[in-house]
């Protein structure tokens, strides 16, 4: 009986210690929609991120997260101006590392494992200020100014391949001519040959669940407000089909494994 009692007590203690040892760190997750979720970051798994908010676990799909912040701060215009459009880790000492977070372990601080171009790299969450994955829809344009440019002035926007839509911060009028100068390319999957220019997939493939399934996967597309998407591709100018805030996007149906971005200079005529 004594052995059973001791063994039972040991098992209970082990369970308590195991529960206490579960990975968790205070963090704020900024979603692509602009929503901010603050709590304890617990895990990254098949269901996405697990965040403990007021004692309740909340699962957030990985593709819904734009920024993970460990400092409690917010991204400034100057911070967004440094964002290249690909996932990067900003350390508290100011250093940046290009890479994608794919595992969370340890206790407090967390052990963060990144996939980088030179292989896996482990970091302590105590050294990390934030992980920037993409721009939320309500983030300012990468020019560092949310003001709408006047006719004849240009605005440069980074259109990340890791999110569906990027706000340009530009309000247009129906019938207004917009000119585009686009550079860069987006890798549309883990296959290094699966790339797209602004005109679309280099292999000619399509994405059946994309915003414009009839157009080439990866092509540069646009929409105004919540209106119907329209193709831009490698055109140098278009006529705005409606009035409102202009968004640019990448014509794809899965963004979590994408890499790269388009750099688009827009001029209002």
- CATH T-level topology of the largest domain: Jelly Rolls
SSE class? mainly beta
- CATH architectural arrangement of the largest domain: Sandwich
Strand order, largest beta sheet = 4-3-2-1-5-11-6-7
Shape: globular
Mean pLDDT: 82
How many extended strands?
21
How many domains is the backbone divided into?
A: 2
Helix and strand run: HEEEEEHEEEEEEEEEEEEEEEE
Could you tell me the strand content as a percent range? Answer: over 45%
Please outline the major beta sheet.
8 strands, antiparallel
Uncertain parts: 1-21, 140-147
- What separation lies between the terminal Cα atoms? 87 Å
Highest-level CATH class of the largest domain: Mainly Beta
| Portion in helices | under 10%
Number of helices: 2
Quaternary structure state of the chains depicted: single chain
Q: Please give the radius of gyration in angstroms.
A: 22 Å
Describe how the helices and strands are arranged.
Blueprint lengths: L1 H19 L4 E7 L4 E10 L2 E6 L2 E5 L4 E5 L7 H6 L5 E4 L4 E3 L1 E7 L3 E7 L2 E6 L3 E5 L21 E7 L4 E8 L4 E11 L7 E3 L2 E2 L18 E5 L5 E2 L5 E3 L4 E7 L8 E10 L1
Antiparallel strand pairs: 1-2, 1-5, 2-3, 3-4, 5-11, 6-7, 6-11, 8-9, 9-10, 12-21, 13-20, 14-15, 14-19, 14-21, 15-16, 17-18, 17-20
């Amino acid at each position: 009986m004594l052995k059973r009692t001791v063994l039972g007590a040991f098992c209970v203690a082990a369970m308590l210690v195991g529960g206490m040892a579960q990975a968790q760190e205070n963090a704020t997750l900024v979603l692509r929609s602009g929503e901010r979720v603050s709590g304890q970051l617990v895990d990254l798994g098949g269901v996405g991120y697990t965040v403990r908010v007021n004692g309740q676990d909340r699962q957030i799909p990985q593709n819904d997260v734009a920024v993970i912040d460990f400092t409690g701060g917010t991204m400034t215009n100057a911070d967004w101006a440094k964002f290249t459009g690909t996932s990067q880790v900003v350390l508290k000492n100011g250093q940046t590392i290009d890479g994608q977070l794919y595992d969370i372990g340890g206790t407090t601080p967390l052990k963060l494992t990144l996939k980088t171009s030179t292989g896996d790299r482990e970091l302590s969450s105590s050294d990390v200020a934030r992980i920037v994955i993409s721009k939320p829809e309500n983030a300012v344009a990468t020019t560092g100014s949310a003001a709408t440019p006047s006719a004849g002035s240009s605005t440069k926007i980074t259109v990340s391949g890791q999110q569906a839509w990027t706000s340009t911060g530009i309000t247009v009028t129906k019938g207004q001519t917009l000119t585009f100068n686009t550079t860069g390319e987006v890798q549309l999957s883990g296959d290094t040959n699966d790339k797209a220019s602004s005109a679309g997939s280099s292999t000619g493939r399509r994405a059946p669940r994309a915003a414009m399934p009839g157009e080439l996967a990866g092509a540069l597309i646009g929409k105004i407000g919540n209106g119907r998407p329209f193709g831009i591709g490698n055109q140098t100018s278009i006529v705005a089909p409606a009035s409102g805030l202009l968004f640019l996007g990448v014509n794809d149906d899965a963004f979590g494994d994408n890499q790269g971005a388009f750099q688009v200079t827009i001029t209002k005529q």
